[in-house]
Specification:
elongated; about 400 residues; two-stranded antiparallel sheet; nine-stranded mixed sheet; alpha/beta; 11 strands
Length: about 400
């Protein structure tokens, strides 16, 4: 016969299996997190771009997982293109200075981000603004300027309600490579991809990093051609260093438990198991718990017995015997507490007791003289017995470090 605890466990397991099956078979929600990481296959990851660049550039494409400043400092002799892509490219000042110094030597710097922070120098002479869509569907239309690579029809993108564009540029030293507008005719040439010469090198800036994501590239062939057109500005005769450090969704170390809880189905399965265990422990423990009987401990009658005997001695005027018992108990106290021999009472004896009991030698000698006096007396009065008891108790209190 199955016990109730076993039935609870079986029901919990069946419920868990049914729940996990339902969760596994339900349609998964699309993850629109702007990762831009090369290993992510989600819409806004760049796994497709990474594969496309590997096919086009081969071993010329070199992934970089360290900060640009650190990488260029340790590899100052390299040349080619440094490719940085992220939703927001917020580089610090030292990184920008190192990248621009490297670019000025005759290299290419490609930056793609919806914003660039405040780190880019004023000498590039550009300002960005937000372009809002005027229609309900939030459509944006983009096209490359170069007639050899631009598509016949503008690229339509409708997943966001606003994008950045270059509001102010120096037309004398800036070349517009791509434009964006919220009208299909692209009547206003809002530049979203530009190129500038910097020293002996070139800087390419794009405010539309989504053009390099999985979703954009795979949506239709025109989008793929648009992205390929942007990549055509990279010099495939030299190395292309693809940054993997400045990524919103870059890899980082996580514990096994965090990886386990990152999946919604596994996380809820874990929580349900914990709740089931708590219910089992609560109800099973409550069912098996028994009342603990209260056992009254035996009373210590030693003190009462001692008081009874003392009263008998006192009422029968046997003060001498009480005094002898009192003195014997006190001598045992001296031997056990101070570890001295009480048979011979000389100066060494008095000095040892005085040094260990916070008393003077005279006080100790006076106490033991009184004890010797009572020992030699044939009869003891009540007053003498009370004085002996008081003197001994006061000695003990002081010997224990109390005043």
């Amino acid at each position: 016969m199955i016990k109730k605890g076993g039935i609870y466990i079986i029901l919990a397991v069946i419920t868990l299996v049914i729940f996990m099956a339902l969760e596994y078979n339900k349609p998964k929600e699309v993850n629109w997190f702007p990762s831009f990481a090369t290993h992510h296959k989600i819409p806004y990851g760049t796994k497709v771009l990474n594969d496309l660049m590997e096919q086009r550039f081969g071993d010329k494409m070199i992934p970089v997982f360290r900060p640009p400043y650190e990488y260029l400092k340790q590899n100052d002799s390299i040349s080619g293109t440094y490719f940085l892509l992220n939703n927001d490219l917020k580089l610090d000042k030292t990184e920008v200075e190192e990248l621009l110094e490297w670019t000025a030597k005759g290299n290419t710097l490609f930056l793609a981000g919806s914003s660039f922070g405040q780190s880019l120098p004023d000498e590039l002479e550009f300002e960005t603004r937000i372009l809002y869509s005027d229609d309900i569907q939030h459509n944006f239309y983009m096209q490359l300027v170069n007639p050899h690579i631009k598509t016949d029809e503008p690229i339509i993108f409708s997943k966001k309600s606003n994008f950045s564009y270059f509001h102010k540029i120096d037309t004398l030293k800036t070349t517009v490579l791509g434009v964006i507008d919220n009208f299909e005719t692209i009547s206003v040439k809002n530049a979203n991809v530009i190129k500038q010469n910097y020293g002996k090198g070139t800087i390419i800036l794009s405010t539309f990093p989504i053009a390099f994501t999985n979703y954009f590239i795979l949506e239709n062939n025109n989008n793929t051609n648009h992205t390929s057109g942007l990549l055509s500005y990279l010099d495939n005769s030299k190395n292309i260093y693809v940054d993997n450090h400045h990524k919103t969704g870059k890899t980082f170390y996580t514990s096994p438990m965090r990886i386990f809880l990152s999946a919604k189905e596994l996380k809820w399965a874990y929580y349900i198991v914990l709740i089931g265990v708590l219910f089992y422990v609560f109800f099973e423990g409550k069912r098996k718990q028994r009342a603990i009987p209260i056992v009254t401990p035996l009373k210590n009658q030693t003190l009462a017995f001692t008081r009874t005997i003392a009263d008998m001695y006192y009422e029968k005027s046997r003060q001498k015997e009480i005094t002898e018992h009192k003195i014997n108990f006190f001598m045992e106290y001296i031997r056990s507490k101070f570890y001295v021999n009480t048979l011979e009472k000389n100066d060494d004896f008095y000095n040892s007791i005085a040094a260990r009991s916070f008393h003077t030698k005279d006080e100790v000698k006076e106490l033991f003289s009184y004890i010797e006096q009572l020992t030699n007396q044939p009869n003891i009065t009540n007053e003498e017995l009370k004085k002996l008891n008081t003197t001994i108790e006061e000695f003990k209190v002081k010997a224990n470090g109390r005043k």
